[in-house]
Amino acid sequence: MDPITHAAAGIGLASLSGSKFSICNPLYISSLIASIAPDLDILYRFKGEIAYLKNHRGFSHSIPGLLCTAVLTTALLNIFYPDFSPGLIFLWAVIGALSHTALDLFNSYGVKIFLPFSRRNYSFNLLLIFDPVLMVVFLSLFYLSNSANLSLYSIPVPIGFLLAYLLFRVYVQQRIKAYLGLKYRKRNVSDIIVFPSLFSLFTWNFILETPEEYLIGEIKTYPRGFGLLRKLKKRAVKRNIIDKALNSKLGRLFKEFTPYFYVYSFEKNGMHFVKFLDLRYFNGSDFLHTATAVFDDSFKLIDSIFHPFRKNNNIRIVDETLEFANQSQ
After folding, report:
1. What's the rounded Cα separation, in Å, for the pair 93 and 27?
2. Which of 30, 108, 282, 298 ranks highest by number of CB atoms within 10 Å?
3. Rounded mean pLDDT of 211-232?
4. How many Å apart are CA 61 and CA 116, to the nearest integer?
5. Is the pLDDT assigned to residue 248 strictly greater than 60?
6. CA of 168: how far to CAs of 8, 12, 204, 273, in Å?
7. What stretches pass through the bilayer (predicted)?
8. Percent of the chain whose pLDDT exceeds 90
9. Has residue 62 been placed in a domain?
10. Mean per-residue pLDDT for 210-227?
């Protein structure tokens, strides 16, 4: 989620404490700080783009990381509010921190919630990176909790609306999966993944796998529409070079970056190229995140390049030394 939504969630949830809002209220401050603190992993950008991509939504978003965030937030605020209950500050810091990871779990990037015990990335594939409905819900919660003219019984309304909205998104997602399964029932479908698009509340992307190919497409719920964006054949691959690419630092990074990827190889001018495609996001005419591994005629890896967000964004990975150099063309 974007930082504005995280901040709105922290403030909105703090309003459930029963304490009126004030810029000096430690409960609001603790929830707000903890709700945005996990994204301080953006500081990894000072070590390079690759370091950031490897660590974003990592330990800072895990359960142990969230507890550390709550403890540090409590310790910090206890300096300025020594007479206020540290237990209450800690409680609302935990709630704020948990809201951050909970929201990130609902979009397609996901989080490594069980680090350092597991590096698996978890995602519910339900919400956009910025979802205006969530913003309305959290701001409504804040307003209703702090309005003297409204009854406390109105506070459950935005909470109920949020739950109904999430259930509705689950319903739409499952309906789309059922529709695709029926539409391609003669194609021996082995897997269907449906997830929200980058920008539209009413557009869903999908990955459909058959024995012969992967179908990448989108479905619009309003106005209704269906489109295939790309067909990727399950071509015969040179396992030797593909395995080398997958086991390289670039390959390990890409497999950790996305659970849904496609790999293929080709030859050009005596060189062997292995391409990685992140199948989750299709922007314009191509996939949003790609990577390239280059081998010479003796199958020695000579170059590894990650292309996040656009093809001409070249982040070169030096496989032998763990050094990273960014180069944009």
Report:
1. 8
2. 30
3. 94
4. 11
5. yes
6. 22, 22, 14, 43
7. 58-81, 87-106, 126-144, 150-168, 189-207
8. 71
9. yes
10. 94
Average pLDDT over residues 114-120: 91
Whose tokens are 């015990």? That residue is: 117
Give one word for 77, left, alpha or beta, with left for phi > 0 and alpha for psi -120 to 50. Answer: alpha
Q: Of 80, 102, 99, 82, nearest to 91 (Cα)?
A: 99
Model pLDDT for residues 39-82, shown as the tens digit of each residue: 999 998 888 777 887 788 899 999 999 999 999 999 999 999 99
Please check whether residue 163 lies inside any domain of the structure: no
Q: Residues in the chain, how many?
A: 329
- Domain termination residue (choose one: 213, 233, 253): 233
Q: Do 147 and 47 belong to one domain?
A: yes
Same domain, 10 and 96: yes
Dist CA 238 CA 268 (whole Å): 15
**CA 176/CA 173 separation, integer angstroms:** 5
Q: Does one domain contain both 60 and 89?
A: yes
pLDDT at 206: 97
CATH number of 223's domain? 3.10.450
The boundaries of the domain holding residue 208 are 168-233
Calculate the average pLDDT of the chain.
90
